């Protein structure tokens, strides 16, 4: 038994399958942009992107303050990389494929440097590796490793098995036909003026369609959670802010770097700012967990002002703010300027949330004895805004 089938080259179906994958990722992202926000047409999207992206990093502030003409160059470059270079991925020429793969990897590196998009861009680089043959990849390994591989390759000639080669060829052909068949709805979607993003058309999700940033947010708004231990809420009530691990909160805190890791709660809070609180049941339950002082939830945030307090908060509310980067030549130590917009969610207490949590399945009910079974009332999944804030 051979440890490694060194005389079995990587199937062309595998190579072009991965090239077809990165082609779909990039061309899908490019097409959704030119069919989406008009700022992709007038080349102004990058004027907003660095400030309004989900989780900025330390370089985002500096990149945002680049000249407007440079932002136009960035936007045009994005179109070239996502709409033109992907076609080179399908050309069966080693130097052309290597050029296309290098451009895609470099593009992902630039995105990684400019923001926190978790593991997305790191994973996108992986299929681009199949744009390089062994002649390129061998340069990444030591001469000792190259020597051992060459020796193994020469020895493997003695173990050629023609029947097995034919079996592999048939199997690869079948896989190739399957990929082409599953790609039909994907291609139809890419050609459609009603293109869908990040969608699967088969049960096993083997061949999917992708896309990102079809529209760009022009203003950044943030939801800020505040709590108090006071039992009676008045205009002079003292509120203390919760601080998340990476999303903007305190205007003086520098943006963080977390890629390739991912703070999902911070990411969800960015989306919550576009919606109303009762459209996100997880958000209301988050508030309830903070009111309870839940230790697991506290681990998901950077600062809970009541962690070392003698008592838990009696009320929590959410406020809606607009955030903007401070000017380039600002003498302030702040990264952000923020302006109060309106209440996002009125103050609530734990007793007020009890009925809502029970109705929406967030409170586990005690197990009932078989002898005391009662008819269970069906829950209304749309029963979201049932508690009284007055």
Task: Offer a quick outline of the entry.
The protein has 390 residues and is of the alpha+beta class. The chain is built from 13 helices and eight strands.
Average of pLDDT: 90
Number of strands: 8
User: How are helices and strands ordered from N to C?
Assistant: HHHHHHHHHEEEEEHHHEEEH
Shape annotation: elongated
Task: Walk me through this protein's architecture.
By secondary structure, the protein is of the alpha+beta class. The chain has 13 helices and 8 strands. It has helices at residues 12-34, 46-52, 58-64, 68-84, 94-114, 120-125, 134-137, 143-155, 162-191, 264-272, 281-292, 295-298, 350-359, and strands spanning 199-200, 208-209, 220-228, 240-241, 243-244, 301-303, 315-325, 336-348. The strands form 3 sheets. A 4-stranded antiparallel sheet has the order 4-3-7-8. A two-stranded antiparallel sheet has the order 1-2. Strands 5-6 form a two-stranded antiparallel ribbon. A hairpin with a 7-residue loop joins β1 (199-200) and β2. The longest helix is centred in the middle third of the chain and has 30 residues, at 162-191. It starts with 11 loop residues before the first helix and ends in a 31-residue tail after the last helix. 26% of the residues are buried.
């Amino acid at each position: 038994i051979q440890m490694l089938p060194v005389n079995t080259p990587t199937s062309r179906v595998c190579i072009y399958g991965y090239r077809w994958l990165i082609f779909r990722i990039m061309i899908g992202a490019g097409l959704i942009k030119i069919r989406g926000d008009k700022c992709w047409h007038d080349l102004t999207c990058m004027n907003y992107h660095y400030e309004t992206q989900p989780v900025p990093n330390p370089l985002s502030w500096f990149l945002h303050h680049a000249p407007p003409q440079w932002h136009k160059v960035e936007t045009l470059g994005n179109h070239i990389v996502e709409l033109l270079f992907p076609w080179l991925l399908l050309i069966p020429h080693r130097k052309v494929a290597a050029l296309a793969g290098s451009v895609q990897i470099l593009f992902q590196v630039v995105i990684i440097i400019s923001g926190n998009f978790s593991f997305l861009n790191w994973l996108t680089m992986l299929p681009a590796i199949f744009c390089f043959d062994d002649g390129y990849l061998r340069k990444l390994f030591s001469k000792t490793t190259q020597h051992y591989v060459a020796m193994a390759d020469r020895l493997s000639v003695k173990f050629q098995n023609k029947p097995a080669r034919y079996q592999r060829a048939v199997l690869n052909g079948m896989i190739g036909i399957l990929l082409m068949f599953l790609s039909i709805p994907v291609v139809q979607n890419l050609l459609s003026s009603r293109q869908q993003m990040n969608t699967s058309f088969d049960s096993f999700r083997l061949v999917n369609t992708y896309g990102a940033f079809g529209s760009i947010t022009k203003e950044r708004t943030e939801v800020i959670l505040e709590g108090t231990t006071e039992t009676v809420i008045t205009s002079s009530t003292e509120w203390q802010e919760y601080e998340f691990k990476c999303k903007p909160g305190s205007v003086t805190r520098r943006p963080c770097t977390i890629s390739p890791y991912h703070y999902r709660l911070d990411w969800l809070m960015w989306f919550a700012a576009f919606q109303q609180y009762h459209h996100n049941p997880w958000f209301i339950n988050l508030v309830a967990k903070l009111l309870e002082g839940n230790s697991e939830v506290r681990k998901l945030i950077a600062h809970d002002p009541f962690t070392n307090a003698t008592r838990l908060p009696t009320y929590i509310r959410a406020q809606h703010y607009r955030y903007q980067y401070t000017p380039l030549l600002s003498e302030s130590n702040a990264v952000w300027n923020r302006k109060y917009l309106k209440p996002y969610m009125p103050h609530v207490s734990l007793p007020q949330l009890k009925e809502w949590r029970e109705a929406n399945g967030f409170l586990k009910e005690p197990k009932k004895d078989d002898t005391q079974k009662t008819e269970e009332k069906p829950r209304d999944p749309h029963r979201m805004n049932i508690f009284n804030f007055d």
